[in-house]
Amino acid sequence: MNRTAVLLFTRDLRVHDNPTLAAACRLADRVVPLYVDDPGRASNPNQRRFMLESLDDLRVSLRAAGGDLVVRRGATAAQVAAVGEATGADLVVCASDAGRFAAGLRERLADVAELRVAPGPAVVEPGRLLPSGGGDHYRVFTPYWRAWSQARWRGVEPEPERLRTPNLPDSDELPPADATATHLPPGGERAALARLDAWAPGSDDYPDRHDDLAGDRTSRLSPYLALGCLSARELAADPRLPEALVRQLCWRDFHLQVLAAFPSLTDVPYRRGARDDWESDPAALEAWRRGETGVGIVDAGMRQLLAEGWMHNRARLITAGYLVKTLGLDWRAGAAWFARHLVDLDEANNWGNWQWTAGTGNDTRPNRGFNHERQAARFDPDGAYRRRWAPS
Ligand SMILES: Cc1cc2nc3c(=O)[nH]c(=O)nc-3n(C[C@H](O)[C@H](O)[C@H](O)COP(=O)(O)OP(=O)(O)OC[C@H]3O[C@@H](n4cnc5c(N)ncnc54)[C@H](O)[C@@H]3O)c2cc1C
């Protein structure tokens, strides 16, 4: 074997349990670690800031193993071709992913080099579990959870001790990110592991308190999972974590396999015959975006999103439910606003959950009502969350 491979990082910005990194080291003698900042990939300034910090952290880890990270800006396949030519690489290895961008990227990469695709962000790869009644993916969560829990998961990949690289070409200078949120978490694999280690020991109250808005007891690992600073596969097997948390990781896989089978999830109602006649009220939409609806619990959630680029899951459900079920506005407008701000933006999770909330997606009770007052009374009984984010 005398091969050089371009190791293309995408949403797997880590060195521990990274199947792409492990595959590249197995398949080639020399690897060219590359990240391409592709303007075609959906993101936002908050997630971009987080991504830049994650790249810095990844570079430190790769250097410690004797390698480095080449960073380029532009169309991914063209940059892979250019870097491949400069380094004599004849192979490109990248992670699988769901969605239109990822599918198009794989096609373009296959045109410029021999392509190997390693397991991606899921614990269980989309398409591996199929419903017994037929179909190319699971449409309902509970049977998926059963199959997922019993499935054999892939092995955890060891971190490579040493990376052999050829002479690496220069990196591009990436433009800085003008984050809009003022309280963003630090990016990178080290920060991810530190957050996990800080949260895991006290996580036994998660099953009881994950919906407590003011308590803020969820893991806040979502930005790290969205860019792969943390391995979902490893996390799902972490003995310190409660099953309720593992179930949430299964929801993540569930939406990924839906997106893989239905890439138009971002624009088209997933459920056949679902409602698609939404109201148009630009003033109400703008008030919702700014957290100025006058409904305390909704405004609190929307203002948390603006300040932190993150919102508690229960608040995401309440604010999204208010937009689609109370105001009757289009879920696509709500999802687009979330996509502009979420530091944990994830195509499958954002649009999958928006469609679920709107009743156009996988909810088995699509017409369920949504009462924000009852939600506030139940999940913010003494008003502490409302006072924190939307004091009157
Ligand atoms: C309208 C709406 C939009 C959303 N958009 C996103 C998004 O863009 N990115 C995103 O990561 N999550 C999204 N979610 C799911 C969920 O709100 C977040 O994953 C969660 O709030 C992140 O906080 P945490 O890491 O503390 O969660 P924890 O409760 O600690 O859960 C651990 C992990 O499980 C996964 N998870 C948790 N809840 C869900 C869920 N309902 N669906 C799928 N995966 C889940 C996440 O990866 C999360 O980090 C959305 C939910 C709704 C209702």
From TrEMBL:
<feature type="binding site">
    <location>
        <begin position="344"/>
        <end position="346"/>
    </location>
    <ligand>
        <name>FAD</name>
    </ligand>
</feature>
<comment type="similarity">
    <text>Belongs to the DNA photolyase family.</text>
</comment>
<feature type="domain" description="Photolyase/cryptochrome alpha/beta">
    <location>
        <begin position="3"/>
        <end position="138"/>
    </location>
</feature>
<dbReference type="InterPro" id="IPR005101">
    <property type="entry name" value="Cryptochr/Photolyase_FAD-bd"/>
</dbReference>
<feature type="site" description="Electron transfer via tryptophanyl radical">
    <location>
        <position position="354"/>
    </location>
</feature>
<dbReference type="GO" id="GO:0003677">
    <property type="term" value="F:DNA binding"/>
</dbReference>
<dbReference type="InterPro" id="IPR006050">
    <property type="entry name" value="DNA_photolyase_N"/>
</dbReference>
<feature type="region of interest" description="Disordered">
    <location>
        <begin position="156"/>
        <end position="185"/>
    </location>
</feature>
<feature type="binding site">
    <location>
        <begin position="218"/>
        <end position="222"/>
    </location>
    <ligand>
        <name>FAD</name>
    </ligand>
</feature>
<dbReference type="InterPro" id="IPR002081">
    <property type="entry name" value="Cryptochrome/DNA_photolyase_1"/>
</dbReference>
<protein>
    <submittedName>
        <fullName>Deoxyribodipyrimidine photo-lyase</fullName>
    </submittedName>
</protein>
<keyword id="KW-0157">Chromophore</keyword>
<dbReference type="GO" id="GO:0003904">
    <property type="term" value="F:deoxyribodipyrimidine photo-lyase activity"/>
</dbReference>
<dbReference type="GO" id="GO:0071949">
    <property type="term" value="F:FAD binding"/>
</dbReference>
<dbReference type="GO" id="GO:0009416">
    <property type="term" value="P:response to light stimulus"/>
</dbReference>
<keyword id="KW-0274">FAD</keyword>
<keyword id="KW-0285">Flavoprotein</keyword>
<feature type="site" description="Electron transfer via tryptophanyl radical">
    <location>
        <position position="278"/>
    </location>
</feature>
<feature type="binding site">
    <location>
        <position position="206"/>
    </location>
    <ligand>
        <name>FAD</name>
    </ligand>
</feature>
<dbReference type="Pfam" id="PF03441">
    <property type="entry name" value="FAD_binding_7"/>
</dbReference>
<dbReference type="InterPro" id="IPR014729">
    <property type="entry name" value="Rossmann-like_a/b/a_fold"/>
</dbReference>
<keyword id="KW-0456">Lyase</keyword>
<dbReference type="InterPro" id="IPR036134">
    <property type="entry name" value="Crypto/Photolyase_FAD-like_sf"/>
</dbReference>
<dbReference type="InterPro" id="IPR036155">
    <property type="entry name" value="Crypto/Photolyase_N_sf"/>
</dbReference>
<dbReference type="Pfam" id="PF00875">
    <property type="entry name" value="DNA_photolyase"/>
</dbReference>
<feature type="region of interest" description="Disordered">
    <location>
        <begin position="356"/>
        <end position="376"/>
    </location>
</feature>
<feature type="site" description="Electron transfer via tryptophanyl radical">
    <location>
        <position position="331"/>
    </location>
</feature>
